[in-house]
Amino acid sequence: MTQAVGTSLIARIKGLAKLWLDVAGSAKGGETLSFAPDLPDDDLERLRKQMLACLEGKGGEVSARARAAALGREYLSLSAEGRRRFLRLMAGFGPDTARVGGATQALLAAGDDDQARLSAEAALRTALEPPYARLLTQFNALPEGVKFLVDLRAELMGMAKGDARLTALAKELKDLLAAWFDVGFLELQRITWRSPACVLEKIMAYEAVHAIQGWGDLKNRLDSDRRLYAFFHPRMPEEPLIFVEVALVRGIAGNVHELLDPHAPVGNPDEADTAIFYSINNAQRGLDGISFGNFLIKKVVEELSREFPRLKNFATLSPLPGFRPWLVEKLAEGEAGLLLPAEHRTLTQLSNGQGAKGSLKALVDDGDWANDPMIAETLRAPLTRLAARYVAQEKRTGQGRALDPVAHFHLSNGARVERLNWLADTSAKGMKQSLGLMINYLYKLDEIETNHESYSGTGKVAVSSDIRGLLKV
Amino acid sequence: MTQAVGTSLIARIKGLAKLWLDVAGSAKGGETLSFAPDLPDDDLERLRKQMLACLEGKGGEVSARARAAALGREYLSLSAEGRRRFLRLMAGFGPDTARVGGATQALLAAGDDDQARLSAEAALRTALEPPYARLLTQFNALPEGVKFLVDLRAELMGMAKGDARLTALAKELKDLLAAWFDVGFLELQRITWRSPACVLEKIMAYEAVHAIQGWGDLKNRLDSDRRLYAFFHPRMPEEPLIFVEVALVRGIAGNVHELLDPHAPVGNPDEADTAIFYSINNAQRGLDGISFGNFLIKKVVEELSREFPRLKNFATLSPLPGFRPWLVEKLAEGEAGLLLPAEHRTLTQLSNGQGAKGSLKALVDDGDWANDPMIAETLRAPLTRLAARYVAQEKRTGQGRALDPVAHFHLSNGARVERLNWLADTSAKGMKQSLGLMINYLYKLDEIETNHESYSGTGKVAVSSDIRGLLKV
Amino acid sequence: MTQAVGTSLIARIKGLAKLWLDVAGSAKGGETLSFAPDLPDDDLERLRKQMLACLEGKGGEVSARARAAALGREYLSLSAEGRRRFLRLMAGFGPDTARVGGATQALLAAGDDDQARLSAEAALRTALEPPYARLLTQFNALPEGVKFLVDLRAELMGMAKGDARLTALAKELKDLLAAWFDVGFLELQRITWRSPACVLEKIMAYEAVHAIQGWGDLKNRLDSDRRLYAFFHPRMPEEPLIFVEVALVRGIAGNVHELLDPHAPVGNPDEADTAIFYSINNAQRGLDGISFGNFLIKKVVEELSREFPRLKNFATLSPLPGFRPWLVEKLAEGEAGLLLPAEHRTLTQLSNGQGAKGSLKALVDDGDWANDPMIAETLRAPLTRLAARYVAQEKRTGQGRALDPVAHFHLSNGARVERLNWLADTSAKGMKQSLGLMINYLYKLDEIETNHESYSGTGKVAVSSDIRGLLKV
Amino acid sequence: MTQAVGTSLIARIKGLAKLWLDVAGSAKGGETLSFAPDLPDDDLERLRKQMLACLEGKGGEVSARARAAALGREYLSLSAEGRRRFLRLMAGFGPDTARVGGATQALLAAGDDDQARLSAEAALRTALEPPYARLLTQFNALPEGVKFLVDLRAELMGMAKGDARLTALAKELKDLLAAWFDVGFLELQRITWRSPACVLEKIMAYEAVHAIQGWGDLKNRLDSDRRLYAFFHPRMPEEPLIFVEVALVRGIAGNVHELLDPHAPVGNPDEADTAIFYSINNAQRGLDGISFGNFLIKKVVEELSREFPRLKNFATLSPLPGFRPWLVEKLAEGEAGLLLPAEHRTLTQLSNGQGAKGSLKALVDDGDWANDPMIAETLRAPLTRLAARYVAQEKRTGQGRALDPVAHFHLSNGARVERLNWLADTSAKGMKQSLGLMINYLYKLDEIETNHESYSGTGKVAVSSDIRGLLKV
């Protein structure tokens, strides 16, 4: 028996509806609902009917969408607990178990008959599609429907842990967003001081690598020797998805304070030979796991190459956010094997003479050492070497993947580890995460594919000869 | 065992790849392939490898997309047979049967354990996702990637009949397009004489209801007492998806020749009380079954209400494209029951006196009767009555759905059958399809939901009292 | 003898050029000049040749404009003294005295012969056109040429005082700008939080009535119950020319602190019945005397009426910037006639009891009285009455024009004096200029023309009945 | 006595007004006037009052502009005779003769006193400004005010001949338009198949060099190996002012039929080395004498050089519109000196043998000779030589200016005469004007200034060595 999909969907939903009481048909598009913030059981019942009306497309799809928008507005007015109950209720509109069972049997029965199998597979996939997927899509009728769903996912990810139902709902939402945010739909925009204030305000809020101190600092980062590019979705035109900040300089920059100094003279971008990507930020938590960072970098490289034909290096200036935590862990196992004998000696002498706390461990725990030139000089060689080892050789347990998350991002994009920079970020955060070191990942256009293949295939990390030297010690 | 989705996908593809010989890894992004138009077997083998390289994301996703774009360009250079072979090859990258089997077993084993069931359902859905879905998405990297996929589906629908593999591929593509063409992403644009010539050219090509005779005719349809609205997708900015042509008039218009007459005086739209939707066209065959006509009509009603607060009627002037074919079929069964005795008498007399061919059947077969005022007057009452019956009461076999496709569209949008217009379209097409009749469907804002519910629930058709009168005879 | 204008212009310039030495013809378009900042005489000589090359259109008009642009860039690099010398040199390219003399004689000779007179007038006008007018126009070739000329005029106005040559140059420039900034060319734009940051930055810099405290304050002034409109010129797209800030409220607002309070709740603009224009600013000094304030107000009234049909009052909340200076002057002549006897008595008692400084004069000199509720209450009636008199009756010596500049602006636009507001602006500036008072000018659409005519014809000031009451005391 | 300009203007106008009867003050902004199409004297009287009300700024400048707009609408409804009367009436609001007389005397009195002279000159210029200038400006308040004035000038130029008053009005309008249409305000736009249909429609209407046959022909001229650029004014955004059509080809094109052939294959613009400017059209008669053709050409050269770095030649393919008329005139004086003896002989023989009409004169009168290969071949050398002489050596009587208008345009832009092309335009128009010849003017960037200077200074025409060869015969 063939049956139109729409009708069977309604049938399934009606089946589910038996679980609840009478289904009122009075809901009108655009109407105002009003639930208590915590969604007590009575409200839950009314909400159920509303959701059902959306799923059944009561009054036609246009009305159903209007009704879904009303539900979305309601969601926004709820408390945290109310929202959790709302989402669990919604997640209850899952696949019809009986129908899935039937389709499974049909697939088993199909055996080796190709035609029968293909058709059974299709039927099974349809049966497995949860009705709530339709409701999620309908929320797109909200004035900022796409942003609503992105933010919904951000909340859902927090709530879903350990809750199989919400996990399934979250997975569905991720798949929906992944389709909608296909990189082919994104628009690369240059952000300048001419951009709308409401967009700039968000750039300031979302910058997490090197916090922006205010409108003056932002304006400095948009000066003629800087570039800031972001991806946007056509239906979230004022919400950057991901953005990268670039400095156009001569030679590969090694110190972020100099780059961000508002009093530094403005360079002539037409004379620059190097583009430094000094900050990349994902702006939407709700798009976690839907990746477009590599597309952004490559589009920006293209764009810059076109505008400035003299550019010959494209490199990052990046933190090593996991370096100090890793070193602390290693040191807990003992300093042996981390320092060369001579280094160990010098360090011991220094600590005696200068009141330093006697060990690498003590120094690393103490954020102040960078201010003592002699200690800093003594630590330079061993920490740089250890950083090289950390970035290029340490892997996540059981995987070929680099332990450092920033390293993993750039290496899987096909970059190579080019240079380590000593005392390159001595901010509190820079000391706490990276012990003041920063790293340049270099994007060499003719190496990118090979580097990517080696790294993603065998975990092999591409490094410059300098870094290779450090790794041999 | 947990395993990253990406890796397992590659594993599956590699499994499939065993079917073929050595997989060269040399494919580079953006490279030029070159296959013979008919894709002989040798080319097929190279093509297989190319597709595999895309699916494996060789050289990273950016490169994989560039490679997919090269494949897409290649597809366009192929002959019809070459394209069929291309698509069948692609459709071969379907779900891994063994994995589907395993997941099916896991679901059966889950039994009543909710948690286990949810997780098994998720795994099964993933297993059922065909790898070619990824390749389809990658085609979005083509400069006009979305349009490419829309056109691809149009072709695929033709080829897929009776071919289960291609049918599955076509279904996947439809689902992808349905997600991308969610109505929330579409932009309503008014088309005017200020619109780009390249868009107007397409409007002319896509108008199928009342063909546009040239740029002059088009300009007339864009005059100040006319409106033309279209939906666009942000990634197909020069391709109307669906469009509607509206005349702003006084009173409900009943004759399309008068509406389209380029010599008619231009009305004052601010004095109009009625908006006549006289032509609605789906412009993209590749979006068949992904419906936004009802959204278009309701958006346009909103838009017009805002611009012209005096408008009080929103009605169509539509053909009855299946009326004559239906009547011919009925007449083949005999004229009895179609004509009243008096009508039958008059007709017989007329034919005797005037040389007409003696029966309703003969007249209906003859396109010329409209030119004979006496015959036309004689036919007026019976044909109008039969048209009312056809539109309001005839259903598709075994369904609640109106037999006439245009009627079904407007009725399921919540319109009502308002008025039948005699000799309203005497063009060759109008006579051949609708025996010269046209119909007004009326969109009354406060009835739309109820009408829709009645029609979609029980098949009940809303009609005006005039039409009700005709149905009682 | 008739002669083409272009040729004769060159001839005249060549005549002038005899004053200087050899005229080098080597100047190339776009070349870099380089003068010492103070323009010593040697540089002056080279500059003369450059200007001459522009005036002669050497190498064609395209090249001449490029050369003028180089001159403009040079001007910008000069010191104040250098710029003065530059402009005086330029002003030397005035009309050819001999030619003017000849044309004058021709006009005298024409006598009553209409034809001869018209032709002589035309010839005389042409003779009176200074060649430097052409050079001014050529500066338009600079990338921001219009802004350059606007700023040039701002500088020139300062230098021209007492210098007849520079005065003539300044007058020419004003006429040029008046033609270019014809109100028909200006674009009304609404400024919102979506506007480019570079424009918002200028709004902050140019607001002189109620200074904007920072980006937060600005955002508050752009909230949904506020409006900010500006006029722009198509060739200065990022430079507001004049802007007005509007609050949408219920009832005519009387206190600017409440209006600007960032913590006040946001009103619903759709429920507002009154638009309060609380700040109007001319942003370009170089456009002084080229007036579009009245056009701005009337355009904004139209715009707001369209968007918010419920608005029924359009009023300002304005300072009386000359009130205190005027009162101080009056008090210097003696308090008699300013206070009623009873008021004088109360004030004397108060000052005795409270340590106030014994007289209205002393109080007015003392910015602090507003903090003493009893004194403030005592001053309320007399100061309000005197303010009414000041605004409605005091005129510039020998003219029908209101003494207060803000009053003159609104009265000549056709507004009426509606209401005086006590302690409405107690900022330092508000006390110093307006003794804390603010005034509402009301724009009643059906009175505007009559009010304008009365005021501009006879100096009669339209007032409300409240104000009329105050004037009778 | 100093007096505000505005007041004195009103005083002057009031003086003029004495000529007419009572001046009604009731005119309101935006009101509807209604004059008979021919403007009989009664209407003239009412019109006079309306104009006066505008000039006096009755009810404020905003109202005055609205009133002027009403006048403008009225003008458009008048007959040709009505318009002439309207304009003559308007031209009557000229300078106040008495005031001009006084200012003239003041200037004579100033003598050698620089300060007095400058101030007297300024006063005289002000006195000479006609009040109607203000009215012209006020028409800018019409919705398409700038276009109105441009078209007004086109009409005025026709009427003004022999009418000193209208000539003065026309001169004033030209000066106003010259200020408004300063080249710095114009926008260069590329016209493509994506341009608004309403703009393309005008391009088709305005193309006068090689008429466009329809939308298909136009589309062909906008193909990927073609460019069409136009200047626009920001207040006439849908009205091209001047436009140029360019073909991107290999080698300097010599035949316009090949260039315009819609069946010719589309070239690859990236491989082109030559840009051929094959048609330049002024689109607005009302801007005659306000020249921006040279700016257009140079901007387009810049634009093309940027987009296609391989381009090395920029040349026109132009007609010689005055060649045949000139030759006919010369032949009327006798053939001697035009043909070489050998040429004369061959021609005579040919005519005997072939029935040709015996002389160059007869052939030139006969449009058909191009179809006879032998005659055509015989004429090739002498006509080409005579064309070279015509273009490079024939001057307007008593001037250094080339006789051919197209030649004059390109030569004064700095181009050189590069090549003559035989049978390059054999259309009826091409034969009638240019005897089938076309010419390439070459713009060599490093010669432009020198060529311009030589030509505009001494009338010397730059030619290629080929042309020089032809001139030596």
Automatic annotation (TrEMBL), chains A, B, C, D:
Signal peptide bounds: none
One example GO MF annotation: malonyl-CoA decarboxylase activity
InterPro entries registered for this protein in UniProt: Malonyl_CoA_deC, Malonyl_CoA_deC_C, Malonyl_CoA_deC_C_sf, MCD_N, MCD_N_sf
Transmembrane segment boundaries: none
Positions of the Malonyl-CoA decarboxylase C-terminal domain: 184-444
An example Gene Ontology biological process: fatty acid biosynthetic process
Domain Malonyl-CoA decarboxylase N-terminal, residue spans: 93-181
Pfam families documented for this protein: MCD (PF05292), MCD_N (PF17408)
Top-level lineage group: Bacteria
Protein name, UniProt field: Malonyl-CoA decarboxylase
Natural source organism: Magnetospirillum aberrantis SpK
Native organism taxonomy: Bacteria, Pseudomonadati, Pseudomonadota, Alphaproteobacteria, Rhodospirillales
